Fold this sequence. Notes:
The longest helix has 34 residues, at 72-105. The strands form 2 sheets. The chain has an 8-stranded antiparallel β-sheet. A 4-stranded mixed β-sheet has the order 1-10-12-11, with helices on both faces. The chain is globular. The chain has helices at 2-22, 32-56, 72-105, 108-117, 123-156, 164-195, 200-227, 334-343, 363-376, 421-436, 439-461, 465-470, 478-488, 490-518, 522-536, 545-551, 557-564, and strands at residues 230-232, 238-241, 257-260, 271-272, 287-292, 302-307, 316-320, 331-332, 358-361, 383-387, 398-401, 408-412. It contains 17 helices and 12 strands. Strand 6 and strand 7 form a beta hairpin.
Amino acid sequence: HCWLKRHFWSQFSVALQLAMARGEGDHTSPPWPLIMALAVLVPECINLMAMLLQRSRIGSQVPKELEGIYEPEEYNKSNEYTRAKSSFGLLKDVFDLIVFFSFWFLHGFPLLDSFCSSFQFSEIVTGLVFMAIMSLVQTLIGLPWDIYTTFVLEESFGFNKTTPLTFIKDRVKGLCLTLVIGGPLLYIVLWFFMSAGPNAWFYVFLTLTTFQVILLFLMPVLILPLFMEMIPLPEGTAVITGEQKGDSGPAFLFTRVFYAHDDQVGGRPAWITKDRRFAGAKAGGTLALHWSDDASAGASPGWVISEGLPDAKGAIYARTAQSPETATEWSLTDEATALAQKAVENSSETLVKEPLKSTAANVGSLRKRLMELADRLGYTGANIFVIDGSTRSAHSNAFCTGFGRFRRICLFDTLLPLMEESEIISILGHEIGHDRLYHVHTRLVFSIVFSFVMLYAMGQFITSVAISQAFFVPVPKVYLGLVFFSIAWSPINFVVGIPLTVQSRMNEFAADRYSVDADETHAAFLGNGLKKLMRKSKANLTPHPFFVFLTYSHPPLDIRLEALK
């Protein structure tokens, strides 16, 4: 890390000397580039220092309240995961700083502006092109880091479930949303600042606030479903297959939730998947879990997992003679083994002999109890959905989103096999507490007020000569001012973010208390559920207080458990 810091400062000093040697502008004016660089750099250095302090605490003695969460081997693995993330985060942050300041002090902004202006578009279109190129370059620079995080770091610790196709699709969808929503919105913002005179900032404020409020209603019903499949939590009992260990079988058989099917097979119940994760004979195909009397290929009658609906007689991928609600071993068929072997790139390695297991969860009872809790707490109009989080990660989560009839209670499918029903109920009581205690509303009001102040300041300084000169642009332009002001405002964002983060931790305590006040038994269940989440995610149990102060939106687990008592 000392090498990283020395390397950063050497690169920064060279870029700064080159920039000053070019000597643009009035030499009697203040050194605006240096002043601005120091203002931007101070928060970044504080963050880097906090990350180094956080790293120094890895492997420290676990607080007494948290003893027993990890077995010794698991704790070592948690430390390895935390250390790997810390090293990666430090390297990425230093790299980003080097690239950003090099671009800045090697006059990248005026050079890019000259390139965009050479097309002789209108000023608004030129601004859109400028920002599109900036965004594209940032995305391309960040892409290798995203790929490494997903397919190397998270994969090596057993968390990644994202396929390359899903990774690409998510980014294409994000790009399309940016073009469809961000492009027109940016056009309106530029038009106001170029055409509406001194009150332009206020018109931009009204536009962005209106858009922000509308997005709160549209997010759970239109935006989130583009990236996460949201399946209404049905009645009945679900059968859930276990996690995949190594290349023990085709990925589509693992961490799957099979919901009760309306029709029976051979007088026995049947279950089907409701997500689009399995692409069998046709994209979005269904998997079924049902009884089969088919004795072909020497197989005995028993429970099977097959392609398509129960009566479709599709390809069979797994069999068991045990009850699917408690099956400890499913036998993979030749079809499944062939698919698994094909997934091992150019390899003839023997597949990991880890059996596929399945358990049951009474999702009908869970749904009933969640709806009763929501009604009792006044969280009316909500629907309950299961999110196919297992298609991307083994991490678990639960949250409430939306307002009014757009409310949704969302559970990741990875939560169902991880926790008991009462633990899930207590956690959702916490999430409902955020709504009923107006945490979301308060945050929205603050966001609007802060946006008002920021846009007012932007209106005063968007064409500031000093800010333009700080980025080596002699003549201010509106679209450049928009970018430059956002950079100049970042230290204020850093300062304002600290009390917001502190308030966020206070809100977590309040939501915990709300859940316990709703039902005193929630204290024990909530504590156990949080421990399981931490263990599952290999969370760092010994964070540094300064890092917590700056960045943690949730309190450390030991303090949170102590508050639950």
